[in-house]
Amino acid sequence: MTEHDRRAATAIRPRRRSSPRPAGRGGLHPAAWWLWALGLGTAASRTTNPLLLGLIAVVTGYVVASRRTDTPWARSYVVFLRLGLVVIAIRTLLHVVFGGVGGTTVLVDLPQMPLPRWAAGVRLGGPVTAEGLVTALYDGLRLAVLLGCVGAANALANPKRLLRSLPAALYEVSVAVVVALTVAPQLIVSAGAVRRAQRLRGDASRGPRALRRLLVPVLTDALDRSLALAAAMDSRGYGRTGTVPAVIRRTTGALLLTGLLGLCAGAYGLLDIGGPSMIAAPLLIGGALLAGAGLLLAARRVPRSRYRPDRWRAVEVLVAASGLTAAAAVLATGALGGAAALNPSTVPLAMPSLPVLAAAGVLVALLPAFVAPVETP
Amino acid sequence: MIRFEDVTVTYAGAAAPVLRDVDLTVPEGELCVVVGRTGSGKSTLLRAVNGLVPHFTGGRLRGRVLVGGRDTRTHPPRELADVVGLVGQDPVAGFVSDVVEDELAYAMESLGLPEAVMRRRVEETLDLLGIAELRTRALPTLSGGQQQRVAIGAALTAQPSVLVLDEPTSALDPGAAEEVLAALHRLVHDLGVTVLIAEHRLERVAQFADRIVWLPGGGEPPVAGAPADVLAGSPVAPPVVRLGRLAGWRPPALSVRDARRLAAPLRDRLAGLVPDGPAPPPSAVVLDARGVVVRYQAVEAVRAADLRVLAGERVAIMGRNGSGKSSLLWALQGTGRRHAGEVLAAGEDPALLKPAQRRRVVGLVPQQPADLLYAETVDDECAQADRETASDPGATRAMLDGLVAGIDGATHPRDLSEGQRLALALAVTLVAAPRVLLLDEPTRGLDYPGKAALARRLRELANGGTAVLLATHDVEFAAEYAARVVLLAGGEVIADGPAAEVVTSSPVFAPQVAKVLAPQPWLTVEQVEHALAGLP
Predict the structure, then answer these.
(1) What is the complex's ipTM, to 2 decimals?
(2) CA of B370: which chain A residue's CA is closest?
(3) Residue B197 sits in which domain range?
């Protein structure tokens, strides 16, 4: 940086601080979408009530439909939905085959396979009860809705923008992920070209030989590309590092590790229905703070700046808050004695009812469909 | 600005150094062009400037390279990023982000510049290179020339004092190459950037050069000096310089404009003569295509193209990048898609034949010859081609030796030079003895002698009765090789006729000799030489 630039930078900066976020990059901060989706996902994970789960699915679906862009990753929502259906099918099938939940309403009595003694406790075949089937369906539905939430985040948040807004300390990791993201489509293009070229040779062999003939040129090509990219990145200053004293380096590592442990334990506690949510929340918050401090320290090592970073505005806060409201409402319903409504009884079978507070909270998460700006590519 | 002091580079496992005893100084603000045959160490020289050689590539560098006062021994490439900008041959391979603006900012982000500075420099660079309207475009959607300009811009935003470019116009059609070179010219003149370029297509850059460094290869020290002096003795020289040698111009002209002013006496001597080319003997139609249409989703790449080719004809299909040349070739061969129209090759529709029979009728060498190859050694590749075509063992190898002599059979095809790899792909294709041979951009990465050799081989093939069609935007090569030129634009055939007529009337596709000697119908130095030899 020249002296002139430095002066120019300081001269301009105060004005830019007060000015609104520059136009051009439309859309929402990707992290806001993820927070929103994680909120809904947490809500889904705490309940097996099919009415509530259905409501969550409808809310995410509506927001995705109204706010998604015409980008490749926007199509991932449908993929996740299909995956959800597969999960429901597998969960139900597993129940039919292995059983597990008792009940009195026998629907079908499948022939039971006799198993050796060491496999005691495992059942193959046998009666299929309505109670068990409904339990399996609820369980599968919960997983499917959870997958839908993740799919929604994937569809709405531009993954490359998300990586760009990762903390500087994670920069190297994020670049690796970006490169990996671009390699996959390139591999497909390259494989297409090679296959087409090899058909010119009239080679009709199949099986492992043909696969090898396809893979060898494609992979060497990918390797060449990676080397070219690595050379280009190196030439453009990737990996320039600042100097950091050893003490700070060690503190950084310790902070990050304990912080991440806390985060994991807290997240598990929060998502696990049987877990004590009293301890979960402090663990989660404490872990986040520790990890945040670690990342801040680690960022010193990377002397990087960011071009037109995504900023956190009122809209982002609104969107994230709406998702977290859904989670909070469901958690509150559970804490206020509504556990029965969240996990309706299946043995004996009972008609589920819609818990009002939880449903209202989930409906709040519809907000992004009306307030979030649409990203212009 | 750049100083090489007694530099010798030896790659790991190599018997001889690539560069030996290079002593070279490039002063600030010069545009310096590195010339030399394939494999003479041009890329090594360029990559040594920012320390990629040896920090990234491995090998041993003896001596010292100084750039802006920094020694590459102690500064790895990333620490030189603010001094040297490097642009590779394939801009796409070096793109890190997916949008033009972010790509331009990448190097500045690495340097940790404040956001306000980045905003300003991105705007300035967009304007400087004339790509402001592309700022939010996704990189893969740009044309080749635009991508190359973005790559140059991405190197420029860090405000390096040295810009190094490895064959920046090789993959570009004449129009796009002009755009890129004009941008470079402006950088040198307005900003005083020191530019070091390696380029095979000297006809494009020689006139802009302040200095030329000729790497003779084989461990000989480089020759550096004023362009006219160096090119006068170099085997790699643009046609205009070779024409100057022939006519005895001293110093030889480097640009078409200068040559035209010197060429009046030569034109007088040539007046009344015509290029001798044997009139093609009347022969049968071997390829007949009518109304060929190729679509990619909504885009029509080829629109109702008609083409009739006789046995033994040499046809060049020319046109801008993306004008449908490749799609047409693939559709003619039958492996590529064809949505409408009919193609008859030797009386049969190749698309309906089985692949193994198809290649006996129409052979195609794709743009990346390596895609066609999959064996680990040249010998395996040849043996495999023999088996595929049920030829006598050794037929492919004999074919290869006829094209390029002395390739070690144990070499991996990837380790061959561009010219050798093309020869191998060509041998693999030719062993099936196709009636029609199609080549897609075969001259990428070939130097002048390599191109001349290829043109000679293709002529021999055509004389043997094979119809040869190739897609190219290499104007000089087309002039040397083709008897007939088909111009494509937007997927339609817009001109079709003898090379001399089609090419000389086009400002973009006319070779240098045609431009210098217009309105006389000369296309190549060889034609002129031949005609002059016949004069008393």
Answers:
(1) 0.85
(2) A217
(3) 2-237
